[in-house]
Amino acid sequence: MTKSKRVFAATLVAALGLAACGGDDDDDANDTPSTEAPSDDTAAPQPTTGEGTAPEGTEAPAPPSGESFNVGLTFDIGGRGDQSFNDSAAEGIDRAQNELGITFSEAEPNADGSNRAELLQLQADQSALVIGVGFLFAADVAAVAPENPDVNFAVVDDAMLNFDVDPPAPVCDNCAGLTFAEEQGSFLVGVAAALNTQSDTVGFIGGVGGFGLIEKFQAGFEAGVHAVNPDITVISQYITQAPDFDGFVAPDRGREIALAMYEQGADVIYHAAGGSGAGLFEAAAEYSESSGSKVWAIGVDSDQYNTAAPEVQEYILTSMLKRVDVAVYEIVKAQQDGTFTAGNVVYDLSVDGVGYSTSGGFLTDEQIATIEDYKQQIIDGAIEVPTTPEAAG
User: Fold this and answer.
1) Which stretches within 42-148 are classed as H helix?
2) Do the Cβ atoms of 16 and 107 come closer than 8 Å?
């Protein structure tokens, strides 16, 4: 991300803080960003289009030929740099900037998420497309989108459908949902865990339970483990329960839970806990080095072998890939092509919307062949992966 856009994003968040200070009875103050000119040393430039730099020895890509417009990428709490969910979205918008020629502004809610609606409106004021990264934006997008009919909105991890009607219909004419078959990708890393456990005990750490999404990861993982060996024990624990979403940003707690699971005999642990997963990786390294017996961690969302600290990479067996980057890129391209459609788009194994990584070379060729066989069975419909832990058995 260019320095100018980082300054712009910081200013956007600061502006929200100012707007939020207004009284609740002053609707105009809450809905309209301040027009007061900043001082010279804090003035923020408008978002600029990055040209993309080709590596030495390669030809620069052809300049983008599509129409340029601004995209307002609104991260979940934790923002760019979480090495997981948000960073996958960031990868998608960076690709769109380089390949499609769009500009973008990015911002992140405050710690309690109370300014999501204001943030979305500020993004809508300057953007043709606004993307909320995370299901917690769904209700606010449903409220803000109708007030901005000339702007399109997309929410990652929510279908943006009204299920009270049959068939379900988009909650608004200008908003799309980008959802994933997390249970399918989790099934595959469950197979990987089962193929690599020596103790016949594995673990699952969820960031936040009680709202249905992370339970899909758990259900798929358990189903994959038990497809290989139904006698393997799966220890599962959540860091927090909704509406407390701090479990996604609590690496110290993730580390404590992971160490306890390793002490209970688990030798492979999968996390679906956002930034808290860093604590799992630290625990895997710590326990392995102190016990003399190597244990494994499994990452989530992005290929975390490539984003984790070098000292913990050798303990990351694989990662469940949730291609938020692809979803973000494709919704931007749809906006550019004029093919944006309200409603839900599902990214599953059949379109490589989820998957698993092989970075580090820890999965053997034979193990990969087994995982690929299960993958094809899921695509063919021979295996239906459960979406709730109760159904996983």
Assistant:
1) 85-100, 116-124, 138-144
2) yes
User: Would you tell me the crossing angle of helices 182-196 and 365-380 to the nearest 10 degrees?
Assistant: 150
CATH number attached to the domain at 182-322+363-392: 3.40.50.2300
pLDDT tens string 78-131: 889 888 889 999 999 999 999 999 999 999 999 888 999 999 999 999 999 999
> Residue 211 half-sphere exposure, CB side, CA atoms within 13 Å?
16
CB-based burial of residue 333 (10 Å sphere; 0-12 exposed, 13-18 middle, 19+ buried)?
middle
DSSP code at position 270: E
φ, ψ (nearest 5 deg) of residue 279: -70, -35
Q: With beta carbons less than 8 A apart as the criterion, state whether 284 and 257 touch.
A: no
Instruction: Identify whether the C-beta of residue 302 lies closer than 8 Å to the C-beta of residue 87.
Output: yes
Question: Which helix (DSSP H) or strand (DSSP E) does residue 233 occupy?
Answer: strand 233-241
Interior angle at CA 215, CA 212 and CA 221, nearest 5? 155
Contact 340, 176 (CB under 8 A): yes
Q: How far apart are CA 223 and CA 216, in angstroms?
A: 11
What is the domain partition of the chain in residue ranges?
1-24+66-180+323-353, 182-322+363-392
How far, in Å, are 49, 104, 231, 335 from residue 69 at the CA level?
10, 8, 54, 9
Note if the pTM is more than 0.90: no
Positive/negative CA dihedral, 306, 307, 312, 317: negative
Euclidean distance between CA atoms 272 and 375, whole angstroms: 20
* Span 312-356, pLDDT tens digits: 999 999 999 999 999 999 999 999 999 999 999 999 999 999 999
CATH 3.40.50.2300 fits 1-24+66-180+323-353, yes or no: yes
